[in-house]
Amino acid sequence: MFVAVLLLLVTLSVQGGNGEEKAEAQRPGHVSVVIVGATGDLAKRYLWQGFFEQYVNQVSGGNTFSFYGGGLSPASTATPVFFEIVQAVSCSKETSPDRCAVVKEQFLRLAEYRQLKTLEDYQELAKNIEKELQQEGIPEAGRLFYLSVPAFAYADIADKINNSCRPASGAWLRVVLEKPFGHDFRSAQLLASQLGSSLKDEEMFRIDHYLGKQVVTNILPFRVENKKYLDPIWNKHHIERVEIVLKETLDVKGRIPFYDQYGVIRDVMQNHLTEVMTLLTMRLPVNMSSTEEVLQNKLQIFSNLLPIGKNQAVTGQYQAYKTSVQQEMNKTNDHVSLTPTFAAVLAHIDEAQYEGVPIILISGKMLDERVGYARILFKNTVFCLQNHNSVHCKPKQIVFHFGHGQLKYPAILQALSPASTPGGADNGDMLDLRVKGKDISYSSEVVIIGADQMSGKSAKDFQVMQEKFRSAAMVSAWSEDLVERLAANIQASAEAAVREGGVFHLALSGGSSPLALFHRLALHHFSFPWRDTHVWMVDERCVPPTELESNFHSLHDHLLQHVRIPYFNIHPMPVQLNQRLCVEEDAGALLYEKEVRKLVNGSSFHFVLLGVGYDGHTASLFPDSKVSELGDHLVALTESPVKPHQRMSLTFSAINQARTVALLVMGKGKHELITQLSRMKDNPDKWPVTGVKPDNGKLVWYIDYDALLG
Question: pTM (2 decimals)?
């Protein structure tokens, strides 16, 4: 658990990089580890212990090691301090006392302190490494430099490493850079430029050691494993607020020269706490092992973080700090430092999923307790009538403890309805009530997941059947599960399309069947890439878009007004032109076709959602309407046997060019239709739905059990 360095020796020192470099690094060889800032606070508290634990694990793995502690102080004065630090390292409980004594003696023998101040000092270090390699007679695997020093020293040290300490060809070089990376945005850019002149990008590892904590590393896996439970409540409708807190009881004596340059915000808030914030709020990656996808999802949160105003942050400073600054920095008594040792920041994310949800980041020195945690506090809609100490009236929360404390409360994730009550005091909490909007209900049985143990069963697969219908893929389930699967598949298609080309074209039909889907997308799919989505109409009734019969009116009311989709990405069919409805001379169908050809690559929608009428029509392509005569036109005016008779519709030419076409059929009333369709041959003029046959895409039927089984 001792920070990210536990992984560095394993993944970097032993396995090395990628490709040919990785193949070279995996050969047994000598690894030189150099900690610059070897007697500093981070090295003393974490780094040497971490490197020792990894040495214990790796000592018999084929590599040999040497450990150098470097600093500005001369060896004569710093060596006793250095050895006091390294002698304090300890073995884990799994290591026997006898083996611990042996490997610790070896580790101490391999460790030495060297002054690293001038270029000559680094040149002497390189000579010492070369001498050791010659004595051992084995090839060099690589050199790892861990810069546990203030960021202003990075560029100078990197330049010295580049000019004097690069290994021979075939061995790798790794330079680990701690936070904070610069003083502000401009200095960070300058530092990146300076480092780039000395080191290759693949040689630099900018790390935040807080991400190496066991609980922090398990936030994403916890969210993934409990996705089925968390997805419905991980949003603005259920989350009251998010708290990310790091409290310390210690002061900063002995660290003033460093700390006074940065303060609590730069020291822990803009790195440790904001990293935790991204892990809690980022979109879950499709591939957990893809560092690139995880990074992009984190950056998406940062890009949507609203600017912090002056009224959204408070800072403070413990009283003794002023005296410490004057003493350690030789300042006069009238010197005043404005560096904060305490800060609380209120942040908001400009995403539909977290709209209005306050995210509070708090950290400080010299506080009442040493503790670090992240807490997701959920809204409580329960009123306890008899037992105010009921579990239902306690805070509903998930708490991730980062250390120095036990989880006090489990996380109550979901409440279910009760059976009967025994009466009197024996009712206990069975009469607790849940108030949600205009609804009230009983609340009793709860599902509890302990976040402290980071355990949770993986979400079960949907209870669905995947078979064939009319030689095409079929997904069938109860209506709620079916809609859930369809919504998930549409989002998966959207994300894939955006990754591939930056845009997703979705064509949606009217009618009553898609309404449950629209609600699902609006209320549960907050990470849907609406900003990169264009929504098109499959068909439209020739009525003004303000009337209830309008398909666009229904689409707008049930979906579009609830999601953040750019105005210009919405494409209603132009059924009303020149103050008239669907007049051939107005060429509304041609206008829509031109818009499709202009914006949709190859006129191939990524996803088309269709329904099926009782008479076998789909879109607004009806029986006996000679749909096969529409030719290569993508959009056409059609006639319906029921009012309103005039329609505008995509044609088979447009539908069958799509990458994916979904046919959604729901309800017992459609059972007879499904039975007939299962038996008949293709006849698009009589049964238009049988004309849906994507040229190069795929067709999937989504049929609920009521329609399938009756």
Answer: 0.68
